[in-house]
């Protein structure tokens, strides 16, 4: 068992490739570092497609487990976070399809071709007002169709590049730009104000720990290790 896993996850000098090599050599406990490292990204990405909190956590766990099972297939040509996020997107979309909850937005009314730039919104000095603003923004984002919401979350909230967003969603870079543009237009209409970098959809430490514990419990108790040697 590793000590101070949360600190290891935050250590930039400990690269994903180094951690993956350790796992492939049989040290499965290192996978928890990756789970904790990408929990926030995963949560916000899944939140871009799904709305129910239990569904989001279930999909995150499923994606982490699939990622572990397929880890020997990972190639370093792409970022590990991008590779893992594609697995998450597939899991989330499969869940959405099974539940038959896909929603669509008519594109006929979205004809504007000009990009609107987001302006800075600062929270009011009154914490309650700031919290209400935050909830209003989260609510507006939640109302977006999943195809637009997930692009907005990846690009504006997680600062994922256009190229990586296109890879994660398996769409063209041009399509990423179009969907982001339309998402901004719809949000502007809903909010009558513009958004910037508030800490939306936070994934608190307690939930991060819970997801990590669930994933590692499943890996340790139910998965026949597909590679390496389990001995220290």
The name of the CATH topology of the largest domain is: Rna Polymerase Sigma Factor, Chain: A
Derived structural class: mainly alpha
Largest β sheet strand count, sense and barrel closure: none
Pick out the low-confidence regions: 101-126
SS field, number of helical segments: 10
What Rg is obtained from the alpha carbons, in whole angstroms?
19 Å
- Percent range of helical residues: 55-70%
Oligomer state of the chains in this structure: single chain
Name of the CATH first level of the largest domain: Mainly Alpha
- State the distance separating the first and last CA atoms: 11 Å
Fourth-tier CATH superfamily name of the largest domain: RNA polymerase sigma factor, region 2, helix turn helix motif
Tell me the strand percentage band: under 5%
Q: What is the typical, i.e. mean, pLDDT?
A: 79
Structural domain tally: 2
Please state the second-level CATH architecture of the largest domain: Orthogonal Bundle
Question: Per the principal axes of the C-alpha atoms, what is the gross shape?
Answer: globular
Write the layout of secondary structure elements.
Elements: H1 5-9, H2 16-24, H3 31-47, H4 53-69, H5 80-99, H6 127-143, H7 146-157, H8 162-169, H9 173-191, H10 205-222
Helix pairs in contact: 3-4, 3-5, 3-7, 3-10, 4-5, 4-10, 5-8, 7-9, 8-9
Short synopsis of the structure:
The chain is mostly helical and 232 residues long. It has helices at 5-9, 16-24, 31-47, 53-69, 80-99, 127-143, 146-157, 162-169, 173-191, 205-222.
């Amino acid at each position: 068992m590793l000590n101070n896993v949360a600190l290891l996850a935050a250590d930039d000098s400990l690269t994903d490739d180094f951690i993956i090599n350790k796992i492939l050599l049989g040290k499965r406990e290192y996978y928890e570092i990756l789970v904790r490292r990408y929990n926030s990204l995963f949560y916000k990405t899944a939140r871009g497609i799904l709305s129910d909190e239990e569904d989001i956590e279930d999909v995150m766990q499923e994606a982490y487990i699939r990622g572990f099972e397929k880890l020997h297939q990972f190639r370093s040509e792409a970022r590990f976070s991008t590779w893992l996020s594609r697995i998450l997107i597939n899991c989330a979309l499969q869940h959405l399809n099974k539940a038959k909850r896909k929603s669509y937005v008519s594109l006929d009314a979205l004809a504007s071709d000009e990009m609107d730039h987001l302006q800075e919104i600062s929270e009011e000095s009154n914490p309650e007002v700031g919290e209400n603003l935050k909830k209003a923004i989260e609510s507006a984002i939640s109302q977006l169709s999943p195809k637009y919401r997930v692009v907005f979350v990846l690009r504006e909230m997680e600062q994922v590049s256009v190229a990586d967003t296109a890879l994660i969603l398996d769409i063209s870079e041009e399509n990423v730009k179009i969907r982001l543009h339309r998402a901004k237009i719809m949000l502007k209409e809903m909010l009558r104000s513009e958004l910037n970098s508030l800490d939306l959809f936070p994934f608190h430490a307690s939930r991060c720990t819970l997801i990590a514990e669930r994933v590692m419990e499943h890996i340790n108790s139910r998965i026949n290790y597909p590679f390496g040697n389990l001995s220290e």
